[in-house]
Amino acid sequence: NAGVTQTPKFQVLKTGQSMTLQCAQDMNHNSMYWYRQDPGMGLRLIYYSASEGTTDKGEVPNGYNVSRLNKREFSLRLESAAPSQTSVYFCASRPSGQAYEQYFGPGTRLTVT
Amino acid sequence: SQQGEEDPQALSIQEGENATMNCSYKTSINNLQWYRQNSGRGLVHLILIRSNEREKHSGRLRVTLDTSKKSSSLLITASRAADTASYFCATDGNQFYFGTGTSLTVIP
After folding, report:
1. Fewer CB atoms near the end CB (10 Å): N or C, chain B?
2. Chain A residues inside the 8 Å CB shell of B31
3. Cα–Cα distance for residue pair A84/B107, rounded to 1 Å
4. What distance in Å separates the CA atoms of residue A24 and residue A3, rounded to the nearest whole number?
5. A42·B42 Cβ contact <8 A
6. What are the percentages of helix, strand and coil residues in chain A, rounded to 5?
């Protein structure tokens, strides 16, 4: 099993450009998450999907959209990138219900100039 | 705003010593989890403690939880150079919130 995979690993965008970060998991998990990590800030939840077909906003959703394409895939889209979105983005998944750990992907390092 | 805050922000110890890091949080939780992050990598789950538990052990890890004080601590005993990493607490309630992390350096 590959676990949680993310593409791309690195990306440089100019202000105003758009892009989609891809995430896939092969563990048959219902819930998937997108976080951003900035220096000294820990991880902040952008959006999550409790199950296929549902998405909800997290702590910092502005400037982002998500799509839960199917049970395996959860994508994050930046429609018009801004320098403030320079960050490392992590995708995670876990089974439904309480008391389960999250499994993380390796991250995407995004720079917006 | 962050749900959890950790202290210290950074900790440097000699190999073989114990490392203690603390986490405080703001709202009610179902459980609290600790994760480890090596530089440039994703997070890896270490241990989970439910809200009705007060202490839990896993190998060299010991976690305590005090829901009345909304705080938790992670103790790593007999530290090794390979324990050098950042450690995050995460609260699992209505949403999942991560703390700001403690950067641990273990000097060989």
Report:
1. N
2. 98-99
3. 35
4. 8
5. no
6. 5, 50, 45
| DSSP at A58 | -
Q: How confident is the model at residue B3, as a pLDDT?
A: 66
Chain B, window 52-71: residues with a beta carbon less than 8 angstroms from a chain A beta carbon: none
Are residues A104 and B42, on separate chains, in Cβ contact within 8 Å?
yes
Count Cβ neighbours within 10 Å for each residue of A27-51 and write b for 16 or more, e otherwise.
Answer: eebbbbbbbbbeeeebbbbbbbbee
Residue-wise pLDDT for B56-92, tens only, equals 999 999 999 999 999 999 999 999 999 999 999 999 8
Among A42, A98, A106, the residue with its CB nearest the CB of B99 is: A42
Find out whether B46 and B35 touch, Cβ atoms under 8 Å: yes
